Structure formats: C-alpha cells, structure tokens
C-alpha cells in the first residue's frame, strides 16, 4: 500500500512533470513571454506540486521571468534540472538584473562551447540516423519522465520557421510513441506548403491529443487536411489574450502605439517604412497625441531598429521598455494608446484584448494569415493594410483616421470578444488537465 497525498484534483500533483515546448528558446519575444506567463500560472495553480520544465537556451533568464518553472536546457542534454537554493537567485533578482549577466555569459562562452561540442561529437559514434532530408532529430531526454508534453502557443508551426516546427514535431511524436499525453495550445498553424514539413506534420499532428488554435480562418481547415480529427481541434484565441485582458485600463488611451516588424518573413521597403512614419507622425500631430514605440521582439533588436525611425523627430515620444522588460511592462504601455499601427502580431493581441483597435501592416502571406486571423477573432477591430500596394499614403491615413474615430464605440465589443476567448482557452486547458489526471489516476497504486 503506497502513501501519497491527493489534492483537490484527486491526484498527487508532486508526481506530475510537464515538459513545455517554448517555441522561442532565447526568451527575447514579449508575445511568447506573455504566453509563458499564462501557461505556467495555469499549470501551477492546477498542480501546485508539479515540476514544469520549459525548454530553453537561457536557464537563468527563464527563472527570472517564470520562477514557478524550471529550465530544461536544450544544449545540456535536455534533462530535468537539479533543484537547489541557487536557482532561487534569478527569481529574486528579476530579469532586469539577470538579463545582462545571462547575455554577457552566453556571448563570451558560446564559441568555446560550440568547439567543445564538435570535438565531443566527433569522438562519439552517431547516436541518431538522419532522416530523408539529412536532418538528425534531437529529442530532449526529459521527455521520458514527462506526464505531459505541451507545445506552448506561438506561430512556429509554419514554413517561416521550419527548424522549430520540425523540432516540435519530433518532440510530440516521441511523446506520443511513449504514450505520454500531448497537447498544443494557442497555435497559429500555417502556412504549411514545404514538402518535407508538410509530410512531417501529416505524420505527427493526427497523433496529438488536443490542438487549440488561435484563429478560425485557416488553422482548423489546414489541420483537417492533414488528417487531424475535428474533435481534437478547438478554437480558443491566443493564450496571451488573458494577460492583456486582465490589465485593461478604465479610461481610454490618448496616444498612438506603433511597431514595425522588418524581417526575412516580413520584408518592408525603405519607401514603405518612410510612408508609415510620415503618416503616423502627421496624424498624431493633428490630434495632439503622443507616439508610443512598442517593442515586442528583442531578437537582434529588430523591432527597435525598424520602429524607432518612425517616431524620430516627433515632439512627444514615450520612453520604450527596457531590453529585459516583461510582457506585462509592454501591456502597460499599450494601455496608454487609443489606436495601434503595427506590423507585429502580439502587440496587436495586447491592444485588442484591452479594447484598442488596430491598423495592421503586412507584406507577406504569413502576416496576412496572422493579422487576418486576428481580425476574424475581433470583428471590426483590425484594418489590414498591404504595404506593397499602390496608394499606401492615402489608404493608411484613412485607416488610422477611422480607427481613431471608432475607438470609443469598438471598445466594449472588443473586450467582450477577448473575454469569450479567455473562457475558451481556459476550457481547453480543462481538457488538458483531464487528460493528465485520468492518466495519473489509472497509474496510481492502490491506497
């Protein structure tokens, strides 16, 4: 007869281990940090004694941002970490202190580590066989002891990020083969057109126990075409909606938020960038609004490089959040705004969840799908502007004028949509909890 302490769920939560696929291992994107915040909090509230392992390249920074989680460091064998009092230091210090130290350490030690790994690997016999593309799957060792493998919300199951998509599929497939429950939450699925990635997704995704998608325009149909049964797919909205919805302001903002994403998956010409800046500055001047540069991604400071020129020279520019600021810090800045002009997805989520309308900027199918899906989840709250089409100056000016004018009227309806999405997302997590608790009860020895 075994002794264990069951909590209100009927299981001993200290026996639960959740392995979380993070999607952004360097913790440089505040959209992903918002999802991490919500995901870890929900899991720890349900299972207070559980171990929540998050795959990462930045273990100290993870502890600083999410003290209830523990790092499963992808480059160190991907095992469950050893607990110890030293791991509490980053949590107490916080990301503003830990971040610069963590970044500095990786900068000076990365090259020696890479060299050491190459030498070590050259002395070992191959541990895995490449697949038909020449790719060697790397499966985290921690999966063997997991009670649940959860692919956290994000937009990485797409042609734009094949490395992360394949890595996630490898992990989910291994877990499914080990009969470990698998779920994907708050997912932006697609576009998926690459031959090898499409084949891999078709092989793995039908095995996943539950897939919650963040929009209903593309994802559900794509999953059906890949062979995923409809009862395993649910539309929830983005999990980050909950964080921003809970921080909404009682008073409507008076500023204009702006963020421009320029990247390989979001190409923007210099001319288009100039037009966006000119329109935003010009309109802000006519309504006596301040401009709020909103920095979502700190990867190679991409959002800073592309956004700050838009506000350059304007007399009222609000300070940007710091390099290691949290998602909550950014949400607070969004709350200052009456309208957003953005080419980044998650800052649009933060706005809409608080009842703030968005002018979305796109130059690619990837962002057409992301912002178009968001428009479907928040009817009337997003006007999508194609930066590559003619007449950008006039089209963008009309859109900003309209959203500024309509902001008070749209506010309550957008918040109602956000509230419904929070409920749907929580209901999906209830299904996740039931999967694990049912499995744990079946495995528990007789008392």
Shape: globular
Question: What is the second-level CATH architecture of the largest domain?
Answer: 3-Layer(aba) Sandwich
* Sheet having the most strands: 8 strands, parallel
Number of domains: 2
Radius of gyration: 22 Å
Multimeric state of these chains?
Answer: single chain
The string of secondary-structure elements, in order, is EHEHEHHEEHEHEHEHEHEHHEHEHEH
The averaged pLDDT comes out at: 92
- The CATH class of the largest domain is identified as Alpha Beta
Find the structural class using helix and strand composition. Answer: alpha/beta
Count every helix, treating DSSP H or I runs of 4 or more residues as helices. Answer: 14
- The CATH topology of the largest domain corresponds to Rossmann fold
Q: How would you characterize this protein structure?
A:
With 447 residues, the chain is of the alpha/beta class. It folds into two domains: 13-97 and 125-242 and 422-443, Glycogen Phosphorylase B (Rossmann fold); 243-419, 3-Layer(aba) Sandwich (Rossmann fold). 49% of the residues are buried. Strands 1, 2, 3, 4, 5, 6, 7 and 8 form an eight-stranded parallel β-sheet that branches. Strands 10-9-11-12-13 form a five-stranded parallel β-sheet, with helices on both faces. It contains 14 helices and 13 strands. Strand 7, helix 7 and strand 8 (233-235) form a beta-alpha-beta unit.
Descriptive tags:
447 residues, alpha/beta, Rossmann fold, 2 domains, 8-stranded parallel sheet, 5-stranded parallel sheet, 14 helices, 13 strands, 46% helix, globular
């Amino acid at each position: 007869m075994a002794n264990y302490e069951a909590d209100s769920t009927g299981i001993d939560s200290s026996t639960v281990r959740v392995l979380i696929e993070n999607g952004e291992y360097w913790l440089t994107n505040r959209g992903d940090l918002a999802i991490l915040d919500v995901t870890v909090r929900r899991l720890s509230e349900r299972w207070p004694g559980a171990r929540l392992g998050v795959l990462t390249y930045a273990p100290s920074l993870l502890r600083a941002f999410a003290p209830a989680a523990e790092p499963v460091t992808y480059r160190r064998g991907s095992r469950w970490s050893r607990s110890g009092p030293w791991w509490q230091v980053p949590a107490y210090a916080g990301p503003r202190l830990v971040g610069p130290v963590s970044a500095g350490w990786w900068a000076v030690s990365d090259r020696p580590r890479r060299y050491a790994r190459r030498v070590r690997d050259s002395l070992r016999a191959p541990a895995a066989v490449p697949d038909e593309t020449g790719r060697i799957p790397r499966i985290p060792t921690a999966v063997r002891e997991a009670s649940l493998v959860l692919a956290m919300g994000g937009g990485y199951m797409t042609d734009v990020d094949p490395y992360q998509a394949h890595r996630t599929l490898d992990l989910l497939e291994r877990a499914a083969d080990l009969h470990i429950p698998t779920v994907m939450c708050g997912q932006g699925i697609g576009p998926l057109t690459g031959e090898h990635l499409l084949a891999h997704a078709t092989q793995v995704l039908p095995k996943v126990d539950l897939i919650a998608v963040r929009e209903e325009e593309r994802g559900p149909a794509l999953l059906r075409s890949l062979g995923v049964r409809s009862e395993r797919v649910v539309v929830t909205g983005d999990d980050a909606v909950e964080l921003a919805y809970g921080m909404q302001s009682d008073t409507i903002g008076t500023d204009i938020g702006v963020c421009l994403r320029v990247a390989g998956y979001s190409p923007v010409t210099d001319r288009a960038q100039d037009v966006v800046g000119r329109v935003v500055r010009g309109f802000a001047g006519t309504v006596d609004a301040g401009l709020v540069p909103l920095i979502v991604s700190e990867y190679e400071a991409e959002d800073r490089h592309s956004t700050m020129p838009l506000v350059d020279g304007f007399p009222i520019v609000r300070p940007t959040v710091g390099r290691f600021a949290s998602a909550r810090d950014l949400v607070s800045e969004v709350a200052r705004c009456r309208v957003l002009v953005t080419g980044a997805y998650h800052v649009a989520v933060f706005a809409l969840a608080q009842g703030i309308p968005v002018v979305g900027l796109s130059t690619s199918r990837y962002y057409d799908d992301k912002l178009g899906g968001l428009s479907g989840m928040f009817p009337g709250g997003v006007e999508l502007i194609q930066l590559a089409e003619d007449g950008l100056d006039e089209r963008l000016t009309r859109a900003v004028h309209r959203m500024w004018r309509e902001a008070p009227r749209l506010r309550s309806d957008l918040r109602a949509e956000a509230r419904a999405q929070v409920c749907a997302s929580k209901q999906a997590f209830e299904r996740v909890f039931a999967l694990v608790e049912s499995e744990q009860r079946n495995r528990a020895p007789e008392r």
